[in-house]
Design goal:
single chain; 81 residues
Length: 81
Amino acid sequence: MRTTLTLDADVAERLKEATKESGASFKEMVNLVLRRGFSALEEPPPERRFRVRARPLGAKPGVSFDNIGELLHDGDEIYRL
């Protein structure tokens, strides 16, 4: 299929550079880049891992976080200020 395609200057320059490096024709390079672009659009993005980093809470020594009722009752008294 033959068609006319207008490229932005930066895209045309990158295609020209890629053809020089690979030895492929301009047509082959355009088709390769388009196929890779379509494949990338079809693939789901890679999952980003969610990481939780622990940090000190600054609680006074001897404070237990096992009893939520006690923590709510004691309030700000459990933290070093």
